[in-house]
Amino acid sequence: MAITKFTTSGVYNIVKYDDFLAGNAAYDPGGYWPIASANGTGSSGTITFSSIPGTYKHLQIRAMGRTDEAATTATNIFIQLNGTTSSSYAYHRFRGDGTNVTASGGASQTFAYPTDFTAAGSTANVMGVFIADILDYTNSSTNKTLRFFGGMDQNAVATGYVNINSSLYNTTGAITSIKIYASSGNFTTSSTFELYGIKEV
Amino acid sequence: MPSPTYVALATTVLTGSQASVTLSSIPSTYTDLVLSISVRSSRAVAAEEIYLLFNSSSIPQSSWSYTNLQGYSSTASSDRGTAYGAGRIIAGDAGSATANTFASIELYIPNYAGSTNKVASVTGVTENNSATLAYTYATALLLGNTAAISSIYLQPANGTFDSGSRFDLYGIKSS
Question: C-alpha dihedral over A77, A169, B50, A201, to 10 degrees?
Answer without folding.
Answer: -90
